[in-house]
Each structure stands twice: as structure tokens, then as C-alpha cells.
């Protein structure tokens, strides 16, 4: 297409000043605001971030090129890096698994109802429309020492410590809050997909003697698998970036028990002013997200069913 | 509720039992889901319930589910004594500003990508799409440097412009415009309408469902946004509501009841939008997940 446009322009020797076709001019005019924004606030920052990751810039000094030193330091010297990486992956895996199971269960449950679907959808969707920080401070109050969570744990005789003060349980609190705050989006999305499954497929299967369980596994699940795939990819991408909940509830603590990549980048960059090192961390995160997304697209052939 | 045709044949014991079982099942299903829904709503109740307590009672041991005394004045006190009014205004200016720019910019670029032919179109679109995978924290450091170079720290434009160019919006609207018949453009073109006129009078009215969804999601995303305002501002005057909530969380002698009142206020727009627009959201999510799955 671009070749034909170029050819047309060059085949008009009579009007040499007419550089571009009018349609192209209009297109450029229409795209100008978006393109300017894209260059200044997207392309330039991406390149700058990559360049910064090869410097030792600490905001006050002039940056100097240090090659791969930041990356080498990350993987070989920095003892905190593997903790951060482990925390991030632990959170992402547990959160993703629980989110999918819970949202799918609730979506199937809601779609089985004859009436009142909208009410339940709105209820599970409400936290999604709430500022994460507002949600986090409410949960912070719930988990405050001798607060509601401790009272319930004691009343049930569970013998658990206060989540936010325990390095082995703090991450569970972050998972719980993030689930509460975000699971609604997938619930509504999966519910919408389930409601779109043609009724006659299910009726035909019932006549053939399939029970509810079989209808779910053999018909509904394959038919909504593209939506589940989309939900999985998006949830995975956002879970690797977890920041708001960590910032508001634990600031990475106790110790470094809940320090995730997202939090570490913020901390290194804006508390310690190690912009170069933080940029290297950001690129590690980007590579992880890319790798995970590619892996998911690769695996989708095994389980995602497209009805072409 | 049990209106299936089989239940109309009377006097069959097995059918009678079947109907009874279905009713019990349905009752159990509603009860179970309602219990889960109540658990889900509980943090909201806890927030409001603690917003109307005295601060001493919030911290009191043992914990009481309902307040001993109701201090409804906390909402007024919170807004007056802490600059929640300023936070509220800042949040509104930023969320509305970003939404307006996203809609205007995305309509123009989406129309160009959907309807106009120009060299390099597919390549540019693919470049836009690729950036959807870029994590926000990666951009935050260079964006901070750019914005501080411009002298935009602690300004509305510094908070708005860097997040107002969404390739997601371009892509969402482009997909929608592709579904609008081209004949409509051509008819308007016959009447001598310019491209801009076609966009404004023909395409935008037809694309209103998608534009509305984009506006809603952009507004909510900005209303919730925390990381960029945290970095692009300092101090109290330019803080948005989410920032305001944490600013007072770290102060000595945290006023939990005020924070809970602030959290309640910060939720109100979202709750209203979620309830009023629930049909739109439900339909919109169907549309957007449809294109995402492909």
C-alpha cells in the first residue's frame, strides 16, 4: 500500500509541489496530536529508560555510561534482587491462580441464576471502581494490630499472627486485598462471555444426556476460552506490576517480605535516586512481562478454542 | 421461577419431587451467593462504620461491629480540617482533563487509522499496539525527568498530559469505526462534507457506545490513579484523593476516622457510575473482551 502511494506521487511530474495526496495530508493532520503525544510521552521515555539503564545516574551527578554494570550487579551482587524477584513471582502466580478460579466460579454461579444477575455483577464490580489506595487503607484498618482481622482470627482459634506484622503472612494480605479489589473485572467479563454461549448448544447437549458438569467442561468452557485467555494475559501483566497495595499497606515490609519489582523500582528511583539502577530493574520487569505474554500466546494453541 | 413446561403436568409424584429439589437448589444457590456478596461488601461497611466513630473508638479493644456512638459530623470535619476539598477538586480536574483529551485525540487518530489511506499506516498502528505491553513503572522515571525539565512538576498539565495519549483508546475506537458502514462516509462525501465534518456529524454519534465506554474507563482509571500523581506532585496543594489518603496515613496520631471518611468520599463517583451504568459496562466489556480475545 505504501508503495502504491509513493508511486502515485512520483508519477505526477506536472505538479511537483504536491508532495502528498490530500488523503494522506488529512491523515497526518488527524494523527498529529496522537503522534506528538506518542513520541514525547511514550517513545522518548522508552528510549530514555533503556539509555538510563546503562548509566549510573543518581540525579545529582552527571550520568556516566557503565555498560551492563547495573544488570550484572542485579544478578550477581545485589542480595535483595532475588528476594524481590521471588516475591513478585510468588505474588503473580498465587494471585493469578486464585483470581481465575474465583472469578470463573462466581461468573458461572451468577450466569446460572434466573434473575438478579445484574445486582450480583454490580456488587462484585464495585471494588474495581474504587481507588486502590482507598481500598488499601480500609484493609489496613482491618489488619491493624488488635483490629478486626486479629479479633476474627482469635475468635476462630486459628492461631495465626497479625498478617501485616508477620513476614510469612504479609504477602497473603496483599494477595487478599488485590483479589478483593480486582476480581470483579474478570467476573463480569467471564459472565458476559458465558451469557453469550448459544442456548441451543446447551439444549442439544442436554438432550444427548450430558449432565451439568459435562456441559460446563465440554461446551461452555471451550466456548469462552478466548475470553479466559484474554483475562489471563491481562491479569498476568498487571499482577507483575503490583505497586499500589504494597505502597499503601506494607511499604515492602516487614523486612523485605512484600517488596515486589514495582515497589523496588519506585524505591530505588524515587527514594534512593538511583535512576540508572531503577531503570535496569524496570527493563527486567518488561522482559518478564514480554516473556510471559509470549509464553501464554504460545500455550494458547493447546487450550484456547476459536470458533471460526 | 419454575416455569419450565414439564412442571405444568400435574399430579406426578416424581415431577413434584423434581420441582421441590429444584426450588431447594435454587434457594441454596441464592443464599450462598448472597453470603459471598455480603462478605464482598463488608469492607465498604467497615469503612463507613469506622468513618462515623470517634478516633478513640476506632482503635478501641475489643472491636465492635457497629459504632457505640454515631459521629456523622466526621464527614464534614474531614473535609474542613484536612484539605479534602482540594484533593477532590484536583482529582476531578485531572480525571476530566485526561478523559477529554483521550476522547478528542483517540477519535481523530482512530478515524485516520480506520478510514484514511496513507503510507505506513499498518506499521504505525502496530507500533502503537506494541506499546500497550509497556509497564507503567518503566515510563515513570523518564516521564518524571521530562516533566521536571519542562518545569511541569506540581502542575495540572504535568499530571494530565503524560497520561493522556492512550493507544488503547485509538485501538478501541478504530475497531468500532471499522464496523460502521463505509457507505455513510461516502454519502456525506458526495454532499461535499469534509473529513472532519464526517467524523463529527456521522462517525462520532454512531460510535457513542464505544466512546462512552472509553470515557468511563479513562475517568475511573484516572480517578484511581496513584503512581503518576505521586511522582508528578509534591506536598498537599496538588495532591489527588488517593494521595491525600496516604499523606495523612503517615502523620503521627493517624486520624483513622477522617481517613475512612476520605476513603468513602473517594469512592462515591465510582459507586454511582458502576450502579447507573451497569448495563453499559456489561455490554462494553463484552465488546472489548471480544476484540481482545482475537
UniProtKB/TrEMBL annotation, chain A:
GO biological process per UniProt: transmembrane transport
Superkingdom per UniProt: Bacteria
Keyword annotations: Cell membrane, Membrane, Plasmid, Transmembrane, Transmembrane helix, Transport
Membrane topology, from the record: Multi-pass membrane protein
Residue ranges constituting the ABC transmembrane type-1 domain according to the UniProt record: 85-296
InterPro entries, per the entry: ABC_transporter_permease (IPR051393), MetI-like (IPR000515), MetI-like_sf (IPR035906)
CDD domains for this protein: TM_PBP2 (cd06261)
PANTHER family: ABC TRANSPORTER PERMEASE PROTEIN, INNER MEMBRANE ABC TRANSPORTER PERMEASE PROTEIN YCJO
Family listed: Belongs to the binding-protein-dependent transport system permease family.
Protein name from the UniProt record: ABC transporter substrate-binding protein
TrEMBL record, chain B:
Signal peptide region: none
Bilayer topology term: Multi-pass membrane protein
Domain of life: Bacteria
Cellular compartment(s): Cell membrane
PROSITE patterns to which the protein is assigned, alphabetical: ABC_TM1
Keyword Transmembrane: yes
Alphabetized Pfam families for the sequence: BPD_transp_1 (PF00528)
TM region(s), chain numbering: 27-48, 92-113, 125-147, 159-177, 198-220, 226-248, 255-277
GO biological process: transmembrane transport
Coarse class of the protein's main subcellular location: membrane
Domain ABC transmembrane type-1: 88-277
Keywords: Cell membrane, Membrane, Transmembrane, Transmembrane helix, Transport
Protein name as catalogued: ABC transporter permease subunit
Amino acid at each position: 500500500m505504501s508503495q502504491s502511494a509513493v508511486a502515485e506521487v512520483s508519477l505526477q511530474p506536472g505538479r511537483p509541489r504536491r508532495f502528498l495526496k490530500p488523503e494522506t495530508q488529512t491523515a497526518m493532520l488527524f494523527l498529529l496530536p496522537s503522534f506528538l503525544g506518542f513520541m514525547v510521552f511514550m517513545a522518548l521515555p522508552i528510549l530514555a529508560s533503556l539509555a538510563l539503564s546503562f548509566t549510573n545516574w543518581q540525579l545529582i551527578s552527571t550520568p556516566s555510561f557503565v555498560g551492563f554494570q547495573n544488570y550484572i550487579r542485579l544478578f550477581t551482587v545485589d542480595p535483595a534482587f532475588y528476594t524481590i524477584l521471588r516475591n513478585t513471582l510468588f505474588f503473580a502466580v498465587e494471585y493469578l491462580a486464585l483470581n481465575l478460579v474465583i472469578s470463573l466460579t462466581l461468573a458461572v454461579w451468577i450466569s446460572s441464576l434466573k434473575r438478579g444477575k445484574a445486582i450480583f455483577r454490580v456488587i462484585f464490580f464495585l471494588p474495581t471502581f474504587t481507588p486502590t489506595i482507598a481500598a488499601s487503607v480500609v484493609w489496613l484498618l482491618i489488619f491493624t494490630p488488635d483490629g478486626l482481622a486479629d479479633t476474627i482470627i482469635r475468635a476462630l482459634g486459628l492461631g495465626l499472627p497479625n498478617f501485616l506484622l508477620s513476614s510469612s503472612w504479609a504477602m497473603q494480605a496483599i494477595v487478599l486485598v488485590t483479589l478483593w479489589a480486582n476480581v470483579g473485572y474478570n467476573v463480569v467479563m467471564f459472565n458476559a462471555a458465558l451469557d453469550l454461549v448459544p442456548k441451543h448448544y446447551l439444549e442439544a447437549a442436554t438432550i444427548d444426556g450430558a449432565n451439568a458438569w459435562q456441559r460446563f467442561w465440554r461446551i461452555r468452557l471451550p466456548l469462552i476460552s478466548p475470553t479466559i485467555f484474554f483475562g489471563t494475559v491481562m491479569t498476568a501483566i498487571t499482577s507483575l506490576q503490583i505497586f499500589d497495595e504494597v505502597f499503601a499497606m506494607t511499604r515492602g515490609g516487614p523486612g523485605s517480605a512484600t517488596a515486589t519489582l514495582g515497589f523496588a523500582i519506585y524505591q530505588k528511583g524515587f527514594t534512593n535516586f538511583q535512576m540508572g539502577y531503577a531503570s535496569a530493574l524496570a527493563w527486567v520487569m518488561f522482559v518478564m512481562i514480554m516473556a510471559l505474554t509470549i509464553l501464554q500466546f504460545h500455550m494458547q494453541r493447546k487450550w484456547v478454542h476459536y470458533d471460526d | 421461577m419454575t416455569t419450565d413446561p414439564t412442571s405444568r403436568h400435574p399430579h406426578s409424584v416424581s415431577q413434584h419431587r423434581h420441582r421441590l429439589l429444584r426450588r431447594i437448589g435454587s434457594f441454596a444457590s441464592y443464599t450462598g451467593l448472597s453470603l459471598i456478596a455480603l462478605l464482598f461488601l463488608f469492607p465498604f461497611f467497615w469503612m463507613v462504620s469506622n468513618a462515623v466513630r470517634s478516633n478513640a473508638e476506632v482503635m478501641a479493644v475489643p472491636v465492635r461491629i457497629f459504632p457505640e456512638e454515631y459521629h456523622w459530623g466526621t464527614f464534614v470535619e474531614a473535609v474542613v480540617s484536612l484539605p479534602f476539598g482540594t484533593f477532590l477538586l484536583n482529582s476531578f480536574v485531572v480525571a476530566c482533563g485526561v478523559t477529554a483529551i483521550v476522547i478528542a485525540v483517540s477519535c481523530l487518530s482512530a478515524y485516520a487509522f480506520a478510514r484514511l489511506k496513507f503510507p505506513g499506516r499498518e506499521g504505525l498502528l502496530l507500533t502503537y499496539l506494541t506499546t500497550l505491553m509497556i509497564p507503567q513503572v518503566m515510563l515513570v522515571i523518564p516521564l518524571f525527568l521530562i516533566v521536571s525539565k519542562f518545569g511541569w512538576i506540581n502542575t495540572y498539565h504535568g499530571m494530565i498530559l503524560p497520561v493522556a495519549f492512550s493507544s488503547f483508546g485509538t485501538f478501541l475506537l478504530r475497531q468500532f469505526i471499522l464496523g460502521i458502514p463505509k457507505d455513510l462516509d461516502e454519502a456525506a462525501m458526495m454532499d461535499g462534507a469534509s473529513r472532519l465534518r464526517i467524523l463529527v456529524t456521522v462517525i462520532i454519534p454512531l460510535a457513542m457506545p464505544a466512546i462512552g465506554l472509553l470515557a468511563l474507563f479513562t475517568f475511573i482509571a484516572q480517578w484511581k490513579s496513584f503512581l503518576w500523581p505521586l511522582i508528578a506532585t509534591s506536598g498537599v496543594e496538588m495532591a489527588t484523593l488517593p494521595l491525600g489518603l496516604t499523606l495523612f496515613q503517615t502523620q503521627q496520631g493517624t486520624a483513622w476516622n477522617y481517613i475512612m471518611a476520605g476513603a468513602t468520599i473517594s469512592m462515591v463517583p465510582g459507586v454511582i457510575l458502576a450502579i447507573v451504568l451497569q448495563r453499559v459496562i456489561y455490554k462494553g466489556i463484552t465488546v472489548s473482551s471480544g476484540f481482545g480475545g482475537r
